Amino acid sequence: MIQFKSNGATPPIDMVANPSIEKGFTIWVIVVFLVFLDFAVNYFINILKLRI
After folding, report:
1. Of 45, 41, 19, whose CA–CA distance to 27 is shortest?
2. In the chain, what is the greatest distance between 2 CA atoms, to the nearest angstrom?
3. Rounded distance between C-alpha atoms, residue 29 and residue 52, angstroms
4. Where are the domains of the chain?
5. Is residue 47 pLDDT above 70, yes or no?
6. Residue 1 has pLDDT above 50, yes or no
7. What is the Cα 48 distance to its own chain's centre?
8. How many CA atoms does the CB half-sphere of 13 hold within 13 Å?
9. What is the C-alpha separation between 9 and 3, in angstroms, rounded?
10. What is the pTM of this model?
11. What one-character-per-residue DSSP string does the chain give?
């Protein structure tokens, strides 16, 4: 049980070997989130314009 928990808590070996991969992945997630947020805001504004 303890062995299983420690294995689950440790990050993948690739991220330990290359911290830059984790940092690049985080930046990629932020970029995708910002693009999605921009799309959602534009979609919401268009709905408001149609109702007004």
Report:
1. 19
2. 60
3. 34
4. 2-51
5. yes
6. no
7. 28
8. 0
9. 10
10. 0.46
11. -HHHHHHHHSPPHHHHH-HHHHHHHHHHHHHHHHHHHHHHHHHHHHHHHHH-
